[in-house]
Amino acid sequence: SVTKPVTGLVLGTLVGEGKVRGADQPVGDFVPAWREGAKASLTLADLMTHTSGLGRSAMGSVALYFRRDALAYAANKPLAHPPRTRWVYSNDGVMTLSGVVEAAAGRPLGAVARTNLFDPLCIIDATWAGDRRGHTFGQGDLALRPIDLAKLGQLTLDDGRWRGRQVVPTAW
Cα–Cα distance between 34 and 13 in angstroms, integer? Predict the structure, then answer.
């Protein structure tokens, strides 16, 4: 689950680039399947805070790993609850954020993380798995060294700055 906040930081770098407006932006701006029905009201914040209404899979994130296209699987899951009525830990929601990053940047989450986050912090030994379609698993499977996790923690403590460079907007 350390991966989830890293997905959020990468999303924040896209806010800094102007490719994403902010946490209140509708998911449907990036994921066509979320433009109608109850999902149309959902925002990026709803996915990041696990309040989207998506249910928790009995198998956790394991079901995502067996899909050829984990992104399509996650994005097409029905809501189990009305949006913003309860907190439910949702790997499918964070996988959907991977698709948001991909749609906004035109590249998979892992590639965006490399250029926008890892390279500026000199994180050179990161591996991040994905599905057979090339979508990065936004909810898990990021391997980092402890020193690199500490760099991400320091970046967060320093309001998104690393060695004088604003990597993630302070407001994010």
Answer: 23
Per the rule left: phi > 0, alpha: psi between -120 and 50, beta: everything else, 164 is left
pTM higher than 0.70 for the full model? yes
Residues 75 and 42: beta-carbon distance below 8 Å? no
Tokens 């996790």 found at: 149
Q: For 119-161, how does the pLDDT look when each residue is reduced to its tens digit (9 = 90+)?
A: 999 999 999 999 999 999 999 999 999 999 999 999 999 999 9
Q: Residue 84: left (phi > 0), alpha (psi -120 to 50), or beta?
A: left
Question: What does the block give as tokens for 162?
Answer: 């690393």
* Residue 160: half-sphere exposure toward Cβ, Cα within 13 Å: 18
Radius of gyration over every alpha carbon of the chain, rounded to an integer in angstroms: 15
Cα distances from 25 to residues 20, 40, 92, 154, in angstroms, run: 8, 11, 18, 27
The answer to whether the beta carbons of residues 142 and 98 sit under 8 Å apart is no
Phi, psi of 45 (to 5 degrees): -60, -35
